[in-house]
Amino acid sequence: MIPIHAYEGRRVAVFGLGRTGIATAKALAAGGADVSCWDDSEAARDRAVAAGLQPDDLNRRDWGDIAALVLSPGIPLTHPKPHRMVELANSVGAPVIGDIELFALALRDVPEKRRPKVIGITGTNGKSTTTALIGHILRETGRKVVVGGNIGDAILAQDPPSPGLHYVLELSSYQIDLTHSLACDVAVLLNITPDHIDRHGDFDGYFRAKQRLFEMQAPSGQAVIGIDDNDTAAFFSRLRQTRREEQVVPISSGRVFARGVYALGDRVYDALDTASHPAVDLKRAPALPGRHNAQNVAAALAAVRLLGVSARAAAEAIYTFPGLPHRQESVATLGGIRFVNDSKATNAEAAIQALTCYDSIRWIVGGRAKEGGLKAAMGAAGRIARAYLIGEAEERFAGELDGRIPFTRCGTLEAAVAAAARDAWADGRPGEVVLLSPAAASFDQFTSYEARGDAFRTIVSGLTVPADTAEQVS
User: Fold this and answer.
1) Residue 169 has pLDDT above 80, yes or no
2) Buried b (16+ CB within 10 A) or exposed e, 322-343
3) Nearest partner of 74 among 146, 148, 178, judged by Cα
4) Phi and psi angles of residue 426, each rounded to the nearest 5 degrees, phi first
5) DSSP state of 464
6) Which of 246, 228, 244, 227 shows the shortest CA–CA distance to 236?
7) Cα 465 to Cα 457: distance, rounded to the nearest angstrom
8) Residue-wise pLDDT tens digits, 21-66
9) How far is CA 459 from the centre of its chain?
10) pLDDT digit string (tens) for 101-123?
């Protein structure tokens, strides 16, 4: 745990008692704050009590003594309208912050020479993989590492700051919105496409949240910027006008430049200290397929190189990266058909990354649709034998796919897996893949994309290969 002393002797409201909220309340209490924590969910309050906390109904108490509100990242801050807890905090002039801001305040208490390194990763797609990969490289090359933020355990439940430690943080726009003083030593922006518009009001609001990660950096901070999108390329150019060349490193999965890190085909090239040279052979990294992962590798390589890791040592670590659950996770091969869990693909921009990795796909798609629908995934239409539609988006996605991709309305994930497997086995096409890459949020039928991916694994494990198929394959 990281005790938070910034509010010692003052009362802090904590709203939202999931994993992060419980860790936050405990960290504040350990630092001497008086904590009033609450969640409108009785089940969440019960979990907090089991963790040793005493909920205090923030709907009923006087807010006159509240010094700050620590808000769970998923709760509306400004759009579509501020949550009532935000309005209560605003009415008494209490700042509304998140657990990442508390972490930043804890770092400021550490003398600069003893302060650990902080690496922050943001973007629309690829954050989790890049964060985990950077953590893996640093760990494999002998550094002490904590990986957290929007991945893994809550950051305030992690080891306290110490010299030589590296915090590698995945940071969503929701988290950055609630953060004001996190000065990352290395900040990474992978890409940007429209997402979470309901939370930020419009695309500009969403992108501004991402850019704030760089605005919070100290003058010595270094930036790694993906330049494959027009918006991020323009942001890179703006940063270059205010920082020295060596402080802003471009990365790409298809563009060549004189200085930076870029991928071409199956190679990632390092052009940071000397002339460009191949540094990573992506064919030796089976857990990182596809062009999107080439960008992730380029970003991770650039970040660790700025932290003093050699290109050779980084490459050797990359080759041993095991991958992450729910991100093109190969679950099983049954009757010659491969089943792949890409539940983390919650928008079409993420889904197309997986769709372009396979030649013949039975695509399980659907959930709670996001703005833009399936448009960004249609470039892979020629690879899709049939789509199997699930969830709230079934009707909408049927309209989008009509006349372009054959589809079956399935409703539930279990029905979709069964139908896709049956059709794939009947077709008998070599190399066929049943791919869960939903291009939609999970919250219509599941509590999270992880729960959706776990359900996919369980369903696949219960499949029975038809006897004639098994004989044919053997």
Assistant:
1) yes
2) ebbbbbbbebeebbbbbbbbbb
3) 178
4) -65, -35
5) -
6) 227
7) 16
8) 999 999 999 999 999 999 999 999 999 999 999 999 999 999 999 9
9) 25
10) 999 999 999 999 999 999 999 99
CA proximity to 101, closest of 176, 39, 50, 169? 176
In angstroms, rounded to a whole number, what is the distance separating the alpha carbons of residues 41 and 452?
Answer: 21
pTM value is 0.85
**Phi, psi angles (nearest 5°) of residue 463:** -70, 145
- Concatenated DSSP letters of 11-69: EEEEE--SHHHHHHHHHHHHTT-EEEEE-S-HHHHHHHHHTT-----TTTS--TTEEEE
106 Cβ contact list (under 8 Å, min separation 6): 2, 3, 4, 5, 6, 160, 161
- Please name the amino acid found at residue 190: L
Burial annotation 64-86 (CB, 10 A radius, 16+ → b, else e): eebbbbbbbbebbbeeeebbebb
User: For residue 161, is the peptide bond before it cis, meaning its omega torsion is within 30 degrees of 0?
Assistant: no
- Which own/partner contact pairs does 88-92 have at CB distance under 8 Å and 24+ positions apart? 88/58, 88/63, 89/13, 89/63, 91/63, 92/63, 92/64, 92/66
- Burial class from Cβ neighbours inside 10 Å (0-12, 13-18, 19+) for residue 424 reads buried
With H, G, I as helix, E, B as strand and everything else as coil, classify residue 392. coil
- Output the six-digit token pair for 473: 């394959």
Radius of gyration of the chain (CA): 23
pLDDT: which is higher, 467 or 142 = 142
Judged by DSSP in three states, 209 sits in helix
- Please count the other Cβ atoms lying within 10 Å of the Cβ belonging to residue 241: 7
- Token pair of 350 as six digits: 């993420």
Backbone phi, psi, residue 18, to 5°: -80, -160
Euclidean distance between CA atoms 310 and 270, whole angstroms: 10
CB contact at 8 A, 282 and 294: yes
What CA–CA distances, in Å, run from 278 to 151, 321, 362? Answer: 30, 19, 35
What stretches of 405-448 show up as alpha helix (H) in DSSP?
A: 413-427
Q: Which amino acid is at 187?
A: A
How distant, in Å, are the alpha carbons of 75, 286, 329, 369 from that of 283? 41, 6, 17, 34
The pair of three-digit structure tokens given for residue 83, joined into one six-digit string = 């949550």
Reading the block at residue 138, the tokens are 């640093």
DSSP 286-314: TTS-SHHHHHHHHHHHHHHHHTT--HHHH
Amino acid at 460: V
d(CA 155, CA 173): 16
Assign 73 to helix, strand or coil: coil
Kindly write down the DSSP assignment for every residue of 104-170, as one continuous string.
Answer: HHHHHTS-GGGPPEEEEEE-SSSHHHHHHHHHHHHHHTT-EEEEEESSSS-GGGSPPP-TTEEEEEE
